[in-house]
Amino acid sequence: MVGLGRLVGRGSNYNEIVSGIEEVNSGNLSKKISSKDVKLNELADGINNLLYNYRKVLAQVGMNSDNLWLQQVN
Prior knowledge:
With 74 residues, the chain is mostly helical. It has 3 helices and no strands. The chain has one domain (2-73).
């Protein structure tokens, strides 16, 4: 996350984004990242959109996997 620190500067707002990313990385896919800083909130919104799309893809993969399993069983 060193590159992000150079981009936005270090401080509590930077730490909010980094801790949110680390929480998602450790498995909390429902985490919504936010920041009180207006510029960083734009970045957080972009990350949240990526996570939303990622969750949709995971759901689709899971559904397709279930369908394949059901086809094999029947």
